[in-house]
TrEMBL record:
InterPro entries: DUF6883 (IPR049250), Phage_head_morphogenesis_dom (IPR006528). This is Uncharacterized protein. Residues 334-441 form the DUF6883 domain. Keywords: Coiled coil. The lineage of its organism: Bacteria, Bacillati, Bacillota, Clostridia, Lachnospirales. Residues 188-289 form the Phage head morphogenesis domain. The keyword Coiled coil applies. Residues 57-91 form a coiled coil.
Amino acid sequence: MDSRTYWAIRETRNRNKNKREEKQYDKEVEKIYQNMIDEINKEINGFYSRYATKEGITMAEAKKHVAKIDMEEYERKAKKYVKEKNFSEQANTEMRLYNLTMKINRLEMLKARIGLEMVSGFDELQKYYDEILTKRTLDEFERKAGILGKSVSDPRKAAEVIVNASFKNATFSDRIWMYQGMLKSELDKLLQTGLIQGQNPRVLARHLKERFGVSQYNAERLMRTEMARVQSEASKRSMEENGFEEYEFMAEGTACPICRALDGKHFRVKDMLPGTNAAPMHPNCRCDVTPYIDRKEFENWLDFLDKGGTTEEWNKLKKKKKSVEKPGSSGIMKLPRYKDAVIPKAKFTQYALNPDKDPDKAKAFEKALGYTVDNADELISQIYDKISEYNAKEKPDNGWGKRYEVIMDIVGPNGKTAKVLTAWIDDKNTGEIRLTSVYVDRE
């Protein structure tokens, strides 16, 4: 079993488990929203019962000063909510917006009472999201530790940092309260319009449900997106803890074109950034990231684990082996990630073997080895096959990424052998190890 298959089986199993969990989470979110709708409908119906005539309620009636008894009732309810619901700091900040005076009118009082119910509901939503996002993060720490061998130190503290981190300039909490503000603004307009048009409570209730439906969808989408984010961040911490230097982007089966374009690509763990080269690449993203090592090393790693070793011990052995193999300060090494090297065919057909574009290189290849544009694929294939057999010399970083030179012996279709110099870049932007130039070495 190769590395990709190994991880695909595990990630698919975990993704299905996550989907089942998120269905239950959706039900809880729906319940929170439904409770808000029920309480707000009670407030609206109470408002109509108190002030409406047979002809309905007029704006003039709605703008009369509120009675003292109504003000006292509101204050008692607000104090009760603050005491019993243990509001968060953000909820208490929102509550201060509804500190009223006796000069307010009935409509403003209704909006304040609705605002109170919304603060209560969204505070509950924030706490619930904090709970389930923390659970997802801790679950991922535990799952990866079970596979890789070593757990993240102080996982609960690490989870708190991950859950409350900013993603695209806002935390999950910021977005929840942004949704609250948007919904509150829409409901205020809805009430104003409803009173002007003389709508009855049933019509208002229908419009209210529509507005809440949109907000609930946004909240559920936020939950799934944040779930993907914390899982990616937890995976990153776990891979760092276990000494993995690279990871692979693994798109789910029904992935969008954005994610499919990244599927199977490898990136450095230290460069992982959700939204750029890790899930979530977009709202509702369910793709994954997995540790990456080449096939031979992967099989050796599994064999080591089967014999009772740990990933931590495996990484120590790898480092020890590398320190023995690598000549101290010569700058000579194997080309990094050579098995994933990208060789653009255009470098041969449009430049190195094209007599119209680069006559000197093309003439040298044809004379020394018999390669032309017509048999470029054979040359590319031979470079792929031989790249691991020769040492790479590191060159200065030109700002776009580390550069390397690999000189190898190539056998041409004319039966001759010549040294060919290949130049490579470890591109900072794309994460690719890519061929940039190739020519016959005359030295």
